[in-house]
Amino acid sequence: MPAAGPNKIQLDELLNLLAGGQLALVPHHRAAQSLRLAYDRRQRTLGLSAWNPPPILAWTQWTTSLFVDLILSGHEPRLLLNEAQEHHLWRDIVAADPEASSLGSPDSLADLARSAFNLAATYNAHTQLRRTATNRDTRLFADWANTFLDRCKHQQYLSLSLLNEALTTHLRNQTLAAPPSLHLLGFLDLTPSQQNLLEALGNTQLHHHQLIASTPREALSTITLNERDELTLAARFLRQHLEQHPEHTVAVLLPNPSEDRTNLEATFREILSPELENIAADLSSTPWEFASGPPLPTLTLIADALDLARWATAPLPLSRISSLLLSPYLGNAEDRNAAAIFDARLLRRATLLRPELTLASLLTLASRRNTTAPSWLTSLHQLLATTDLTRPRTFAEWTELLRQILAAAGWPGDRSLTPLEFEATRAFDSLLDLLATLDFAGRRVPFATALTTLERQAAATSFQPPSTHAPIQILSPQEASGTLFDATLFLRCTDANFPAVARPNPLLSWPLQQSLRMPGTDPAITSAAALALTESLIAATSTLLFTSAAEDADGQLRPSPLLAQLNIQQHPPHDLIPTPPVEQPIAVEVTEDL
Question: 469: number of CA atoms within 13 Å, CB side?
Fold first, then answer.
C-alpha cells in the first residue's frame, strides 16, 4: 500500500534496515554502489570478516531480477530485449518504410523512435499513439510502434520499456509474489509505470525515504569571472577541503559532465595532482572519478581494435596504419622494434596518389622494397586471406572471427596492462558478446554489416571501469540522488543549465504529451522538479557550494533563479577560498668572473 510521503532517514538507520534484511530500492546503479560501500565499511567497523551483500538494488536491477524469476518458474516465455536488440528491431522497421528515407539515416531514426516509444511506455501511453497522432511525423511513428508491438507479440519479445507493465500484469494475476515490505530511497518523482507497479504490490508495506546528512547543513553560492576561473575555484576548494578532512567524500556536480571532462581533468591535474601532469603517468588511481566514462572508441586500445577490424575489408589512411605500427597494444616487443623501423623506412617515405593502403597492398609494397614487415602483419594477412568475408554468417560467427583478428595481431600486446587498460579489454569483450546476441532475429549478414553494427554499438557504449572509491566523485545532479556526500560542489549553475532545458519529443503528439505532463511541456513542472532535486541535495550533504560564471565565450551569463528561491547566501570567491599569494621572482645574483 502506498505511503503518505517520504520520511527523512540518516545513513545509520538505513544500514540497520539493510542489516535486518529489508529490501531497498534506489533510482540508479550509482546510488546502489555507494550504499553498498557504506554498508561494507560498517560491517568492517563492527569487526566482521564476512557478511552477505546488502539487499539494495537499483530499480532496473530489481525489475529484471523479478522477470528472471518468472522465466525460471515457467510463467514468462518472452525474451527480454537488451538495448542492442531493440535498436536492431527498430532499425529493421524504419529501414523497411520508404517514407523514412527522406527523414534521416536508419540508425538515427531507430534511436529517435526507440526513445519516443520508451517515453510513451513510461507514461503508459504506448497504446494511444495511433489515435493521438496529429501530423505526418507522429502518424509515421505510430505505424512503426504498431509494427514493433506486433513483432514483439508474434516473436515473443519484451521491450525493456514495457517491463514495468509486464510485472504489473503478473502481480495482478498472482503469478508473481510480492515482497512483504519495500523501502524506496531517493525517488523524488515516480513515473506512471512505476506507480502502477507499486500499486499492484497489494499488501506490500511501502516506505519512502529521503537520505539526510547527520551534521548541520550549509548552502552557499558564488560567482566567478569566467568558466575557467570557476573550474580553478572548484579545484582549490577541493584541495583545501580534503587537506582539512582527508576522510571526506566530495561530489562535483555538473549539468553535463562529459562536456567539461577534458577541461576539468586538466585543471584537477594542475591543482590537485601535479604529479599526474607527466604524459606517461598512470591515471588509474586519480583522486577523482567520473560516474560515467568516455565513449569506448575514444580509448586508444579500443580504437586500435576497431581499426584492425576495418582493415579487414577496406584500406586505412596512412596515419592510422602508422598508429597501428607504433601501438604498444599490437605484437610483442620484438615486433614493435621492427614495426618502428618499418614505419620510418617504408610507410613515411611512401608516395601514393591516395594516402591509404589495404593490408595486402602494404605487404606487397614491403616485398618490392625488400623491407621486413612485423610478424603480426603477416599473421593477420594469412588469416584474412583464408576467410570469405562476403559470405553471410551469424553475428556469433563474425564475433569469433573478430576475436581471431585481434589474436592474430597480438592485441592487446605482451606487456603488463594498467588497471584501466585491463578493464577496457573486458569492456570490448563484453561488447563482442553483445554483438553476438543479435542472432535473436535469426539472420545472417555479411561482415561489413556486422562491423558497422559493432562500430555503432561501441560509439554508444561508455567505458566505465570499476569504482576506485576516489574521494572526489564527478557526476550529474540526477546521479547524485539517493547518495550522501560530506561536501558537494554544484558547478555551472546558470539559468541556461539549471534547471536543464527539457524539450518535447518530436515523434509524440503535443496534445498527448501535454495531457500527461511529459518533460518539456510545462516549464513550471521542470522548475519544480529541479527545485525538489536541489532541496534533496542540500539535505544530503553538510556543505553545498553553488558556483556560476559571469560570462563565457558567447557572452554574459546569469545565475540560476532557483538559487534565489532557495535563499542561498552568496559570497565573493575570496571569502570562500583565500587568494593564493603571488609568487615573488627570485633575484638574479650576478657574480663577476675574475
Answer: 10
Which range of 252-256, 282-286, 304-308, 349-353 scores highest in mean pLDDT? It is 304-308
Share of the chain above pLDDT 90, in %: 60
Q: Long-range pairs for 170-175 at CB < 8 Å and ≥24 separation? A: 170/70, 170/75, 170/76, 171/197, 171/200, 171/201, 171/202, 172/200, 175/70, 175/73, 175/75
Q: Which of 375, 366, 362, 369 is nearest to 408 (CA)?
A: 375
Partners of 547 in beta bridges: 222
| Beta strand residue intervals within 254-304, DSSP E | 288-290
Enumerate residues 6+ apart whose C-beta is below 8 A from 31.
58, 185, 186, 479, 481, 482, 483
> Taking a C-beta distance cutoff of 8 angstroms, is the pair 95, 106 a contact?
yes
The DSSP output letter for 575 is H
What's the rounded Cα separation, in Å, for the pair 83 and 263? 31
Cell numbers that stand for 592 in this block: 663577476
Place of cell 584492425: 308
| 8 Å CB contact between 431 and 471 | no
Q: What is the pLDDT of residues 102-130, one digit of tens each?
A: 788 899 999 999 999 999 999 999 999 99
Under a CB-based contact definition with an 8 Å cutoff, are residues 446 and 389 in contact?
yes
Distance from CA of residue 135 to its chain's centroid?
A: 34
Report whether pLDDT(582) > 70: no
Q: Cβ-count burial of 185 within 10 angstroms (0-12 exposed, 13-18 middle, 19+ buried)? A: buried
- Single out the residue of 538, 568, 548, 546 nearest to residue 490, CA to CA: 546
Distance, CA of 289 to CA of 96 (rounded, Å): 43
Asked if residue 382 lies in contact with residue 359, where contact means CB atoms within 8 angstroms, the answer is no
Residue 442: helix, strand or coil by DSSP? coil
Return the C-alpha cell found at 488: 558537494
- pLDDT bucket at 583, cuts 50 / 70 / 90: low
Which set of grid coordinates corresponds to residue 556?
554574459
- Compute the distance between CA of residue 222 and CA of residue 241 in angstroms, rounded to an integer: 17
CA atoms within 13 A on the CB side of 401: 26
Question: Cβ of 45: how many Cβ atoms within 10 Å?
Answer: 8
* Structure-block grid coordinates of residue 247: 576522510
Burial of 199 (0-12, 13-18, 19+ CB in 10 A): middle
How far apart are alpha carbons 168 and 536 in whole angstroms? 29
Q: CA separation (Å) from 492 to 40, 75, 230, 235? A: 34, 49, 8, 14
Tens digits of per-residue pLDDT, 193-212? Answer: 999 999 999 989 999 999 88
Amino acid at 169: T
- Nearest in space to 207 (alpha carbons), one of 381, 352, 7: 7
3-class secondary structure, 593: coil
For the record, the C-alpha cell of 413 comes out as 600486446
Give the pairing type, strands 555-556 and 551-552: antiparallel
For the chain, the first-to-last Cα distance in angstroms comes to 96
pLDDT digits (tens, 9 = 90+) for 47-102: 999 999 999 999 999 999 999 999 999 999 999 999 999 999 999 999 999 888 77
Contacts 24+ apart (CB under 8 A), 333-338: 333/414, 333/415, 334/375, 335/374, 335/375, 335/376, 335/410, 336/374, 338/372, 338/373, 338/374, 338/375
